[in-house]
Design a protein that fits this description.
0% of the residues lie in helices and 55% in strands. Strand 7 and strand 8 form a beta hairpin.
């Protein structure tokens, strides 16, 4: 079992920055991969960024060069630094853990970017 709790969402103007954090209930290194996904009403949830237990990262093309995923193993946290935010980044952002071939999700945090 893995519990995930996100924080850090909010309202920001276009061009601004936000940092999302996800607190994980177990050692990050025991989890195959962690990631951030986002979803807007009426659309499928989409991948934003992932980081594997080995530290490899992957980003959606739409956020490359603007977002950075990182982890703090001591704090059991996975973070998403979001810079140069755009109105199209507006969504509910979810933390994800791929643990023993099962997906775990946080409750989500709203990010709203105003133009």
């Amino acid at each position: 079992q893995v519990q995930l709790v996100e924080s850090g969402g909010g309202l920001v103007q276009a061009g601004g920055s936000l940092r999302l954090s996800c607190v994980v209930s177990r050692s990050i290194f025991s989890i195959d991969a962690m990631g951030w996904y986002r979803q807007v009403p009426g659309k499928q949830r989409e991948l934003v960024a992932t980081i594997t237990s080995g530290g490899s990262t992957n980003y959606a093309d739409s956020v490359k060069g603007r977002f950075t995923i990182s982890r703090d193993s001591a704090k059991r946290m996975v973070n998403l630094q979001m810079n140069s935010l755009k109105p199209e980044d507006t969504a509910v952002y979810y933390c994800n853990a791929d643990f023993m071939s099962r997906d775990y999700w946080g409750q989500g945090t709203q990010v709203t970017v105003s133009s």
